[in-house]
Amino acid sequence: MRKVMVVDDEKWVRRGLIQSIPWDKLGLQLVGEAADGQDAYDMALELRPDLLFLDMRMPGLDGRELLARMDAELPELLTIVVSGYSDFEYTKQAIIHHAFDYLLKPVKKDELAEVLDKAVVELERREGERRKVEEANRSDGWFRDLLLERAGQGRESGSIPASWAGKAAAVFVVQADLYRDDQGGGAVLLRSLRDKLVRERAFYFGGAWEAALSPLPDGRSGAVGAVAVASGQLPPGELKRLLEAVQAELKRLAGCGYSIGVCETALAEAGWLKRALEQALAALAGRKLSEKEAVLLASVSAAGAGSSVSPPYPHRHEQAFLLALQMGNREEAEREFELLLRSIGDESATVGQLKQGAILLVHALERHLRANDSGLEQTCGKPPLELIEALRDRGDPGSVRALFVEELIPAMLASIQQQGATQGELIVREMQRMIESHYDQPLSLQHIAESRFVNADYLSRLFKKMTGQNFVDYLADTRIRKAIELMRVPTYKNYEIARKVGYEDYRYFSQIFKKKTGKTLGEFRSSLE
């Protein structure tokens, strides 16, 4: 029995409606009636009726506001508005908020019967569509099972349903162009998309095709789907039209654009789904950051990827970024991070290159912290693997920036400042590690002291007390030691070594080298032979 509620502030109107409806004949059941909007709202949320008769003019929460709430919270509810001749504005609001139909007071029996017949037909139609969707959900179980199977089990070819066997197929992956922190929203989108495919089956491939959908098996945002047709080959024009319809539906539901990676495949081959999924994901990873709402074919994307050269990872910006963090300078750290992000995430870069660069930076942060007897998990509460998984979902520079600028950089700076405030000796040890790691960059004791809110004269005296040298001599000795190590590589020129250890002025480097070693560069290199 389908459940019905009647809402009107006039009892005689409610009684008249209730007595005029042939309940048993239409398979309807009265589950509640209310005289004001607030009671009706609470009752509807509890009883979840299929059909609602609603008077638009009521005290308190009126029909217009109640209808808007019902449209938002119970979108499947059919609402029949009951209105007086003078309530035209209310009737207009009923149309805006998707009321199914309306009746004018006083309600005539023949008009009521006509509206009820239409409502029952609509309810039956919706129930039929729901059954189709539920059947589609059940039929997609094999698809999810194959996605979750471990590689190498060798059962895939035997797990394909009979309705799919021997058909040409394509596997596609859909992911939002911009990262959405939407926990749980993906399941709703998937159900709505599956519903659309069921409803519009007749409009593609002559109606003779199969479809399956599932969340991505590794927990990433997005979905994976497959379509199959009985003909020997998927008509490319029809496939493109279907995928564009999928994009349009997802954009309507989620309010953002989606790109699709697609791979045509043969169902009869063992391991077909795993390989096709990998190729579809690779196609998506090859999307240029400047491309939006793209449909990328695996074969074309693979060819394009092979012909392009990945830009080199910006190690220099990475080192400058780590140095700024270690010195506690947030402004400088964010500036260096922006330069690094611009290098790995400009519009000519691909989604895959952006993610790979960001992942490499996470590894660099972990190594840097490990050298200081710490780690990302202790510093920001998330281990490296969790951060890497978070980055796999982020295919746009803005979301990568948010992860670093809003989470990682503040957490690391807070940790560094907390350690530095414990005692001056910790700062000196950090300075020694800083010199060891960043001897090739401009280093200033004054800059370090300011960034750590420590008096420079005090820090200078403390440094000499702990190391036996002043800061300048300690840095120079480290650079000369590193230069001697590089001299053992015959291919390095002396001016190249100078730059690698932090001296842009080759002549000054030569003077410092002789002062520290007692030999010229040439004499020292000769002694190594």
Secondary-structure blueprint of this entry?
Layout: E1 2-7, H1 11-20, H2 23-26, E2 28-34, H3 37-47, E3 51-55, H4 63-73, E4 78-83, H5 88-96, E5 101-104, H6 109-139, H7 141-148, E6 168-176, H8 185-199, E7 209-215, E8 223-229, H9 236-254, E9 258-266, H10 272-285, E10 295-297, H11 298-307, H12 315-326, H13 330-344, H14 351-371, H15 376-380, H16 384-392, H17 397-420, H18 424-438, H19 445-451, H20 456-467, H21 471-487, H22 494-500, H23 506-517, H24 521-528
Parallel strand pairs: 1-2, 1-3, 3-4, 4-5, 9-10
Antiparallel strand pairs: 6-8, 6-9, 7-8
Helix pairs in contact: 3-4, 6-8, 8-9, 10-11, 12-13, 13-17, 14-16, 18-20
In short:
The chain is of the alpha/beta class. Helix content is 58%, strand content 12%. Helix 8 crosses helix 9 (236-254), helix 10 (272-285) crosses helix 11 (298-307) and helix 18 crosses helix 20 (456-467).
Walk me through this protein's architecture.
With 529 residues, the chain is an alpha/beta fold. It has four domains: 2-132, 3-Layer(aba) Sandwich (Rossmann fold), CATH 3.40.50; 142-149 and 159-307, Alpha-Beta Plaits (2-Layer Sandwich); 315-467; 471-528, Homeodomain-like (Arc Repressor Mutant, subunit A). It is 58% helix and 12% strand. The protein contains 24 helices and ten strands. It has helices spanning 11-20, 23-26, 37-47, 63-73, 88-96, 109-139, 141-148, 185-199, 236-254, 272-285, 298-307, 315-326, 330-344, 351-371, 376-380, 384-392, 397-420, 424-438, 445-451, 456-467, 471-487, 494-500, 506-517, 521-528, and strands at 2-7, 28-34, 51-55, 78-83, 101-104, 168-176, 209-215, 223-229, 258-266, 295-297. The strands form two sheets. The protein has a five-stranded parallel β-sheet with strand order 2-1-3-4-5, with helices on both faces. The chain has a five-stranded mixed β-sheet with strand order 7-8-6-9-10, sandwiched between helices. α10 links the parallel β9 and β10. α13 (330-344) runs antiparallel to α17 (397-420). The longest helix is centred in the first third of the chain and has 31 residues, at 109-139. The protein is elongated. Residues 150-158 and 300-307 have low confidence and may be disordered. GO terms for molecular function: DNA-binding transcription factor activity; sequence-specific DNA binding. Residues 429-527 form the HTH araC/xylS-type domain. Residues 3-120 form the Response regulatory domain. It is found in: Cytoplasm.
